[in-house]
Design brief:
Blueprint lengths: L3 E7 L10 H13 L1 E11 L10 E8 L2 E9 H20 L10 H18 L8 E5 L6 H7 L5 E5 L7 H4 L5 H8 L4 E4 L2 H13 L4 E3 L4 E4 L2 E7 L6 H9 L1 H13 L5 E7 L6 H14 L8 E7 L6 H21 L7 E4 L8 H6 L3 E4 L8 H9 L7 E5 L12 E3 L4 H13 L2 H17 L2 H14 L11
Parallel strand pairs: 1-2, 1-5, 2-4, 5-6, 6-7, 7-10, 11-12, 11-14, 12-13, 14-15, 15-16
Antiparallel strand pairs: 3-4, 8-9, 9-10
Helix pairs in contact: 1-16, 2-3, 3-4, 8-13, 10-11, 10-14
The structure holds GDP-alpha-D-glucose.
GDP-alpha-D-glucose binds next to strand 11, strand 12 and helix 13.
């Protein structure tokens, strides 16, 4: 059996399950075949401490059968590669936010430099039969850089965030370079059929690629790549076990007691402009305005865990949220009722399932999302006899899989308020039927399915050995 090498921007210790579903699933595979996880350590070396662009300090640690290899990046590389290009260009554009992108030429140079650095450091660690699985937008050109160094390995790539249509992609200077780099992989995976369609249309129209058969294979730039959709799932069993554990039960009991005559709505998100938080609060305000029967009753608990605080767009959204919460509570609150509980902290993972289960409505309304795992966690944590209702943005990848959620357009504030009202008043029979069908989907397509189906497809992909420099 070949050894699996996972490459991602951040590396998680597979012995620590607190890291959540993705880390657990990857750890399962890595533990069974033995393997290596390679990526950035999360540490930055200042220039004054010897940090130089294009250079890194490397650390190796054995975690059971898994070797963890991490790199400390120089300040200059970190700022251009991570803050600049990854989070200042690719993240906003791939989430359709051209207005927030900052196309500084220094950023793309840093992005390329760090991908070359990763390739240079990884290449000597690879064994001939290794299968390499690269994750996410930080590392699009990694396979191209590895190929340029003569790597003929089987290399797969999974994009966790959406891929926008060609006209949006085209706003990125050098977008053709990014898509060409994807052809250095043997298999490219997307979250949804919608994203896959965007890839297909781009490569056909802009790159003159030729479709080979109906299994997602494309030929261009002297290479064959297979492109498919692999919607990521959660570890349903692990999440249900977490729901039954003491910490979640205690959270559930506490919430039920405190809100005994009220109905809870819950939102759990990283504080990110893609998650549609201001629109969600406005929809909740609209609900209280248009449906007065929910005043003094419906309570929205919004957890917005801190994220990327070194990027300006994130501090702007923080202020907008604080002001919206303050005005809703000021205008609608009573002495003994606060409509919005806004928590700008990370809540311990074992408590989340209890919070989900105590809530009548899960509000997952991103403006754009690759998949969105919170929607699946909310479903997994419900009591099948008295389940809550999911109000879900049609612009999250997960909407393709969950047509029985109440699908909304998050930009339509009134429409979203109406859907929340429907969710709050839905009879238990209908809630049960909807929950049952959603549960069947998330169980079938769980994170183990995702991992296994990606790796099986990669194992069968038509691997080509090449030393062609791609860039
Ligand atoms: C990217 C894509 C895709 C959130 N707040 C807290 C907390 N969380 C956990 C949730 C969930 C995870 O973080 C968030 O997952 P999402 O899928 O919603 O979103 P992204 O972080 O944007 O992830 C996304 C995903 O990759 C996987 O491919 O689905 O579309 O954007 O597990 O529970 N966990 C804890 N405290 C918090 O306060 N413990």
């Amino acid at each position: 059996m070949s050894r699996l090498v996972v490459v991602s921007n951040r590396v998680a210790d597979p012995r620590k399950t607190a890291a959540g579903g993705l880390a657990v699933a990857l750890a399962d595979v890595l533990n069974s075949t033995g393997g290596m996880w390679f990526g950035w350590s999360g540490k930055v070396i200042e220039a004054a401490d010897g940090g130089k662009p294009g250079e890194a300090r490397q650390h190796t640690q054995q975690a059971g059968p898994v070797k963890l290899v991490t790199l400390d990046l120089s300040r200059e590389d970190h700022d251009a590669f991570y803050v600049g290009y990854s989070n200042g260009v690719l993240w906003p554009v791939f989430h359709y936010r051209l207005d927030l992108a900052d196309f500084d030429a220094g950023y793309v140079a840093g992005y390329r430099r760090v991908n070359q650095l990763f390739a240079r450091k990884l290449k000597p660690l690879l064994q001939p039969d290794d299968v390499v699985w690269v994750h996410d937008y930080h590392l699009i050109p990694l396979a191209a850089e590895l190929r340029a160094l003569g790597c003929g390995h089987r290399i797969g790539y999974f994009l966790h965030i959406p891929l926008p249509p060609s006209l949006i992609m085209a706003a990125i200077p050098g977008h053709d370079w990014l898509i060409r780099a994807l052809f250095a992989y043997d298999l490219v995976g997307f979250q949804s059929r919608g994203d896959l369609r965007h890839f297909d249309r781009y490569v056909e129209a802009e790159a003159g690629a030729q479709r080979l058969g109906d299994d997602g294979r494309w030929r261009a730039f002297n290479r064959t790549v297979q492109a498919c959709a692999f919607p990521i799932g959660i570890d349903v069993e692990e999440f249900q076990a977490l729901t039954d554990a003491p910490e979640a039960r205690e959270m559930f009991e506490r919430m039920r007691k405190e809100y005994s005559r009220r109905k809870l709505l819950v939102g759990v998100d990283r504080l990110d402009y893609s998650k549609g938080l201001p629109q969600r609060l406005k929809a909740f305000r609209e609900l209280l305005k248009s449906y007065p029967e929910h005043r003094d009753s419906a309570t929205l608990i919004q957890i917005a865990s801190p994220s990327r605080e070194d990027v300006t767009a994130y501090t702007d959204i923080l202020h907008e949220l604080e002001s919206l919460c303050g005005s809703i509570n000021g205008n609608f609150g009573e002495l003994d009722w606060m409509p919005v509980r806004y928590i700008h902290r990370t809540v311990a993972r074992p408590r989340l399932p209890g919070l989900y289960r105590a809530s009548r409505v899960g509000v997952v309304t991103p403006l754009r999302d690759g998949m969105n795992l919170v929607a699946k966690e909310f479903i997994a944590a419900q009591d099948p006899a008295d389940p809550g209702v999911l109000v879900l943005s049609r612009f999250a990848g997960v909407a393709e899989q969950l047509p029985d959620a109440l699908l909304v357009n998050p930009y339509d504030i009134e429409g979203t308020a109406n859907a929340i009202h429907l969710a709050l008043t839905m009879p238990v029979e209908e809630r049960r039927v909807r929950h049952q069908s959603q549960m069947a989907v998330i169980k079938k397509y769980d994170v183990h399915w995702w991992c296994q189906s990606f790796l099986d497809t990669l194992a069968k992909a038509e691997a080509e050995v090449t030393g062609t420099p791609w860039l």
